[in-house]
Amino acid sequence: MSTVEIANKKQVFQEADEARGPMHLIHENFLGRGIDLYIGNKQAASDPSLLKKHNIGTVFNCAVNLDINIVEKNDPLSKVQAFGWASVRYYKHGIVDGPGNPHPMILAGYYQLRSVIDQELPDKPSYPWNGTGNILINCRGGRSRSVTLTALLLHLDETETYPTLDAAINHIRVARQLIKEEWPEAPKPILVDAARWAAEQVKRITPYLPKES
């Protein structure tokens, strides 16, 4: 591909990104638990009013190159940089958007994201959130890493609706309003390959998981 062609493609992607909303509803009522799943970009994850509008109670950031300070209540012990509590539960799983991720990292991302939904927090002042709320899965642009992990989650846990990983990805592409020109790289093929491997491992592991009490 020539330099001009690369520049033109980047321009098309940039214009599509600017025209697209910061986040979109991907799946309603996950596992019948009343939890809606959203995918979004860095702007969505860092906008408390937008999160509140969509009842987002949990933010799952899967971009290694994106740190967001969403602390709203500083811990009095914080000195150099603020730490404390946000209005939402915040999780991070740092994935590279392209080569560089060991395959188990995508597998770990699935288990972390899935466990966020099952996790029960103690009733203590240091855990100030009431329930999970809806979940925003984000990366920098909401086009690749977040799409990969969400598609893996949907395929494995809402299998009747998304019998294959490709079915889940294609659904998300449409729901997230990714234009056809973006599809070959949204999500990155190397991430999709890792997700296919992860899906097979989850299916092997599941019969051996301990029963929750």
Layout of helices and strands, plus pairs?
Layout: H1 3-19, E1 23-30, E2 35-40, H2 42-45, H3 48-53, E3 56-63, E4 73-74, E5 84-85, E6 89-95, H4 103-118, E7 134-138, H5 145-157, H6 165-175, H7 189-205
Parallel strand pairs: 2-7, 3-6, 3-7
Antiparallel strand pairs: 1-2, 4-5
Helix pairs in contact: 4-5, 4-7, 5-6, 5-7
Please, could you describe this protein's structure?
The protein has 213 residues and is an alpha/beta fold. The protein has a single domain, classed as Protein-Tyrosine Phosphatase, Chain A. It is 39% helix and 18% strand. It contains seven helices and seven strands, in the order αββααββββαβααα. The strands form two sheets. It has a five-stranded mixed beta sheet with strand order 1-2-7-3-6. Strands 4-5 form a two-stranded antiparallel sheet. A hairpin with a 4-residue loop joins strand 1 and strand 2 (35-40). Helix 5 (145-157) packs across helix 6 and helix 5 runs parallel beside helix 7 (189-205). The N and C termini lie far apart (56 Å).
Q: How widely separated are the two ends?
A: 56 Å
CATH class reads Alpha Beta
Tally of separate domains: 1
Strand coverage percent: 15-25%
Task: Please name the CATH architecture.
Answer: Alpha-Beta Complex
**Helical proportion, percent range:** 25-40%
What are the secondary-structure elements, in order, as H or E?
HEEHHEEEEHEHHH
Largest sheet, strands/sense/barrel: 5 strands, mixed
Record the strand order, biggest sheet.
1-2-7-3-6
Mean pLDDT: 93
Class of secondary structure makeup: alpha/beta
CATH fold-level topology? Protein-Tyrosine Phosphatase, Chain A
Helix count from the secondary structure assignment: 7
Shape: globular
Radius of gyration: 18 Å
Spans where pLDDT lies below 50 across 5 or more residues: none
> What's the number of extended β-strand segments?
7
**The named CATH superfamily:** Protein tyrosine phosphatase superfamily
Protein name: Dual specificity protein phosphatase-like protein
InterPro entries: Prot-tyrosine_phosphatase-like
Organism: Marinomonas balearica
